[in-house]
Amino acid sequence: MTPSERTDDQEIRLTIQRLARRIRSMQSDETVTEGQRSVLFALSNKGALTLSALSQHERVTPPSMNRTINALVRAGLVTRVGAEDDGRKVSIDLSAAGRTFIAETKRKRDAWFTKQLASLTPAQRSMVDEATTILRGIADS
């Protein structure tokens, strides 16, 4: 691999990272941290989870996850739900406000991205569509 090819590879990676950061930065409540937002999206995608399962999913320690959950509970974005068959087992789930946060954040992200794509020429849009298939394959590898 030549130095020029490495630079091109790095440029592609850095561009994808910048785009992902730009999209992630759009959310309905600017006071929610990146870690908190990640937990909210995990709960939205997977449903209610235990603190342990969330810790594993987010790759953080249980005490760190507990602090994140406490902040989200105080903000009214998640609730703790006790299991009916075992009072010691507690799951974390999105509250109505948490579901609204997720829906509004997705709406903002989709609107911004759709606007960006609409500004492309038909040829550019076709290239993006083709690149999407290739990038999906890389992401799924």
Which helices and strands appear, and what pairs or packs with what?
Elements: H1 3-24, H2 34-46, E1 49-50, H3 51-58, H4 62-74, E2 78-82, E3 90-94, H5 96-118, H6 122-139
Antiparallel strand pairs: 1-3, 2-3
Helix pairs in contact: 3-4
Structure description:
The protein has 141 residues and is mostly helical. It has a single domain (3-139), classed as Orthogonal Bundle (Arc Repressor Mutant, subunit A), CATH 1.10.10. Helix content is 69%, strand content 9%. The chain is built from six helices and three strands; from the N terminus they run ααβααββαα. It has helices at 3-24, 34-46, 51-58, 62-74, 96-118, 122-139, and strands at 49-50, 78-82, 90-94. It has a three-stranded antiparallel sheet with strand order 1-3-2. The mean pLDDT is 91.
Question: How large is the count of helical segments?
Answer: 6
- Report the radius of gyration as a whole number of Å: 19 Å
Largest sheet: 3 strands, antiparallel
- In whole angstroms, the N-to-C terminal distance is 21 Å
Shape: elongated
